[in-house]
Amino acid sequence: MDLTGARWRKSTRSGNNSGACVEVADNLPGRVHVRDSKDRDGDLLTFTPAAWRAFVELARTR
Prior knowledge:
By secondary structure, this protein is α+β, with helices and mostly antiparallel strands. It has a domain at 22-61. The chain is built from 1 helix and 3 strands. It has a 3-stranded antiparallel beta sheet. The longest helix is centred in the last third of the chain and has 13 residues, at 49-61. The termini are far apart. 5% of the residues are buried.
């Protein structure tokens, strides 16, 4: 998987929690990638933009 140009970011709400965060790259066409900030070379979760938007909207209501 080519992640050249991926811009990874953490939530602005993540705070200072010893690096226990997820990072999201949503700037690549057609996919949103999610990784563990403590294991940046580990496995990724990959979503379609529509599935990611649905997840974020649901998370906001919880």
